[in-house]
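Schema walk-through. Below, the input block comes first and the output block second. Nothing else is stored per chain. Lengths vary across the set, and this one has 205 residues.
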Amino acid sequence: MIKTFAYLILFLITFSLRSAVSFTYANEAKFAEEALKADKAAEEVDKKEFEDYLGGLRKIYEKVTKRTGEYRELLDGLLFTVNDYSRKAQEAGQAKAYKEFVTVASDYNSMLGDLGIMQAMLDMGKFAEGEKFIEYYVLMENGFERLKGNFSLKNEVFLERIAKLKNADALRYEKNLLRHYKDYFEYDLHLDKINEARDGLKDGE
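--- output ---
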């Protein structure tokens, strides 16, 4: 009787231990599974945030590329017209008008030079991907800001030129140049980046 009771107690203890071990193992397995799911979810969130950020920078890059191309074409056309006026003034023996048109054409070439530098920087980003594109974007943004930093100096030069020009057509094209110069370099990449990030947050809500 005592032996039977002892065996019964031993059986219950063994069963309890096995149950406890099984329960603990099941809980640990469940915890590990949930932790793995949480890690995967976090990775997905990080990946989405990275892709959203990268996508926002690409949009700005494409916008700057488009603007730069459009302004180069616009100024090329205007410079062609200024050069035509210059040729006609020279043929007509209008020395003062010819000199003013040459000066205006020089200013157009100066801005076209800035746009050419910007275009060269933009061309460098065509094949950059992922983190490399982000590294490139920072360099491109700094390059744009450096060119933009020259704006105040050239702005003074253009304004001084406008005050001295006598030929009506030369004056008109110099004013056009100043307007386009301001319009191009007043663009704020930083503000656009903030707006893109804000739009990304709205999309994720």
